[in-house]
Write a structure and sequence with these properties.
Cyclophilin; 33% helix; elongated; 8 strands; 8 helices
């Protein structure tokens, strides 16, 4: 067969058509990137296997701890020939019982403190002359020899009045704000210990000026910090205080005392003193004791719950509701 010769023009036209046809051809091969499998990316099966492995290790550790606990309980002495294995030892309830007993004791202590302030209203319908009166053995007052020797140049009052002069008796009524009355304490003062301080207390109690005594702090098991406000005309000069530390010792609870080293408040017409809650013999020779609580130490014990042990800050305000001079 004889081939037809194409002109140059037609040949170029066919080449152009062929190129256009090639450009318009759509490929049948998928050239889009494949989608990622979430299981392959997150390795969910691997995480599940890791979780099972961690759970198995945790169970093995718990079993090991139980075995160590059992060995520590029996002291390492195990009978390998026993057929019955020792079961799981239940947790001891002793700490819970001890804690519960502490709560009960605390509630009982608070209830007992409330009972101390409750007065009886029982009427026995018995005539007063039929009641049996128990007479207390009174101790005869004897004037200390050191007082007679110290004030020998002065004209002493009659012996019957020396007791009121040297041993005045006062009382304080404590009240816990917003709660209840705390009770009354009776205090016997020793004039020979510090005459100026005793005189300031006697004047305040005789005038029944209850606002002149402030309760500042309370240290449970130690003492109660108080302050006596002194009028300007009755001001005590720190350098002219007359005192005798041998007159009274700190060998019993309820001892009233003040320190000579910490009386800067006297310049502000105030006397800082403390009431001990237990015997403090370590204060002998360091603080001047001028009085002692003759009755009402239980009232002081009942107020110890209202003071913080370290700082002495009062959790409830304590005030003096009444005060007076008895003897």
């Amino acid at each position: 067969m004889q081939r037809m010769r194409l002109s140059e023009k037609k040949r170029r036209l066919q080449v152009e058509n062929y190129k256009n046809m090639i450009l318009m051809v759509k490929p049948r091969v998928d050239d889009v990137s494949p989608k990622l499998n979430i299981r392959d990316v997150l390795r969910a099966s691997k995480l599940r296997d890791d979780l099972n492995a961690f759970d198995r290790i945790r169970r093995m550790n718990n079993e090991l701890l139980r075995s160590v606990n059992m060995i520590s309980r029996v002291g390492g002495q195990l009978d390998t020939f026993r057929e019955n294995r020792m079961g799981h030892t239940p947790r001891s309830r002793i700490p819970l019982i001890v804690l519960r007993n502490r709560y009960i004791e605390r509630d009982n202590a608070k209830f007992g403190q409330m009972l101390k302030t409750v007065g009886t209203t029982l009427d026995t319908h018995v005539a007063p002359h039929l009641l049996r009166h128990v007479r207390k053995n009174s101790i005869e007052f004897v004037v200390p020899a050191q007082i007679l020797a110290k004030y020998s140049q002065l004209q002493m009052p009659p012996y019957s009045q020396l007791r009121r002069l040297l041993r005045p008796v006062i009382y304080f009524d404590f009240y816990v704000k917003g709660l209840r009355p705390a009770g009354r304490i009776t205090i016997q003062l020793y004039t020979e210990a510090c005459p100026q301080v005793v005189l300031a207390f006697v004047r305040a109690c005789r005038n029944r000026d209850k606002n002149r005594i402030l309760v500042n702090r309370l240290f449970p098991g130690l003492w109660l910090d108080c302050c006596l406000l002194i009028p300007q005309e009755q001001k005590i000069k720190p350098k002219r205080i007359e005192y005798d530390m041998r007159a009274l010792d700190h060998n019993r609870p309820g001892t009233l005392a003040f320190s000579l080293d910490n009386q800067d408040a006297l310049h502000k017409d105030a006397l800082k003193f403390s009431i001990s809650l237990k015997p403090l013999q370590v204060l002998n020779g360091k603080r001047v004791a001028f009085g002692v609580v003759s009755s009402g130490t239980k009232v002081l014990d009942s107020m110890q719950v209202f003071g913080m042990k370290k700082s002495g800050k009062l959790t409830k305000s304590i005030i003096i509701s009444d005060m007076a001079l008895l003897v």
